[in-house]
Design goal:
By secondary structure, this protein is of the alpha/beta class. It has 13 helices and 13 strands.
Length: 362
């Protein structure tokens, strides 16, 4: 018993003290494993079934799968030299910090409310976060971003933004890119871009060498389970990322499925389901605005909506009692009483509205 206690104490002495006190990121799956209608992780409600019986597993996969990169190059209208494949876009977020930031010395800029993993990964690596909140109208504080960019290595901007769902003005992005062209890497996270594909910023890569765009197959393609993402950037940035990424980032089944998803048939299926989900979203927004205890529904260009209720905690618990799992955002500054709701199938949307009406009638 004493030996065990001594060993436990030794482990904590060996560990970095900031990691001991670090509060880990709470993913949707970690806090939403109950219920039967999952509308908390921005996943697709539609399943894709792939036959992977004849794959071989005795050899390591390709470091950067050539066929997959060629397909994504065609899909995204970029050169193969500008693409890195990663384990979801989360790994790419981390790789950029590993390449450009030094422990306890460098800074990154984050514009909340936004995706929490930017700041969480930087904390893990001992990098300083500079939080520059968006204005109340959800626009960027460009003036302040410029001011702090001179001493920052990276700026992370989620577009469309998570959890608000809105599109950040492209003119603000260009303004920031111009100002930071020699000082800072600007990272645009386009995880949800397929839901508003005409707003993508891939075309800016040829003009701005300090731009990195992150993509994923988790959202519109409905393949969250295979963990396949992409970083699209200047050739020099891609070469640096390749130096620090693990030798075999994607397993054989993930590569196989990603290749299938990027076939003509797979892309058409994705586009069809994006249209379906956007229709479901329009219906859900119309119906949810009729609920008496709804204060505001944020405009959304994604597969989720952010809704402000009179009491988010009450609504969250009542819906959970009916098996509906949502994502409460009230802990985020500026989002008091807000809940993020993923767009499900039409049947799930109807179930949600009926559940909300039952609360309203209590």
């Amino acid at each position: 018993m004493i030996l065990g206690q001594n060993m436990e104490n030794s482990i904590y002495k060996l560990s970095r003290q900031d990691i001991i006190h670090l509060k880990g990121y709470q993913s949707a799956r970690m806090i939403g494993d109950q219920g039967h209608v999952w509308l908390n992780a921005n996943e697709s409600p539609y399943e894709f079934i792939f036959n992977i019986k004849n794959l071989k597993y005795n050899r390591y996969p390709e470091f950067q799968p050539k066929k997959l990169i060629e397909k994504y190059s065609i899909y995204s209208n970029t050169s193969i030299e500008n693409i890195l494949v990663s384990r979801g876009s989360d790994e790419a977020i981390e790789l950029l910090i590993r390449v450009f930031c030094r422990y306890k010395k460098d800074y990154i800029i984050i514009c909340p409310p936004t995706y929490a993993m930017y700041s969480k990964i930087s904390e893990i690596y001992g990098i300083h976060n500079i939080f520059i909140p968006m204005f109340k109208n959800c626009s960027l504080n460009v003036k302040k971003i410029k001011l702090f960019s001179l001493n920052s290595k990276l700026i992370y901007i989620c577009r469309p933004n998570n959890p608000t769902g809105h599109i950040i003005d492209v003119l603000d992005i260009i303004d920031i890119l111009e100002y930071t062209s020699r000082t800072t890497i600007v990272v645009i996270d386009e995880a949800y871009i397929e839901f508003c594909i005409n707003d993508n910023l891939i075309y800016l890569l040829k003009q701005y060498h300090n731009l990195v765009i992150l993509r994923t197959l988790s959202k519109a393609f409905g393949l969250a389970g295979i963990r396949c993402g992409f970083a699209v950037a200047n050739v020099k940035i891609i070469k640096l990322l390749k130096k620090v990424i693990t030798p075999y980032p994607l397993p054989v089944p993930s590569i196989y499925i990603a290749n299938k998803a990027l076939n003509k048939k797979g892309i058409l299926r994705m586009q069809s389901q994006v249209k379906l989900l956007n229709n479901n979203k329009s219906w859900l927004i119309k119906e949810i605005n009729k609920i008496s205890f709804v204060e505001y529904v944020y405009p959304s260009s994604t597969n989720y909506i952010l809704v402000q209720f009179k009491s988010s905690d009450y609504v969250f618990r009542k819906l959970l009692d009916q098996g509906i799992v949502l994502r409460d955002q009230s802990h985020i500054k500026g989002l008091l009483n807000c809940i993020r709701i993923s767009i499900g199938s039409y049947e799930e949307c109807v179930y949600l509205i009926n559940a909300l009406r039952s609360i309203s009638s209590c």
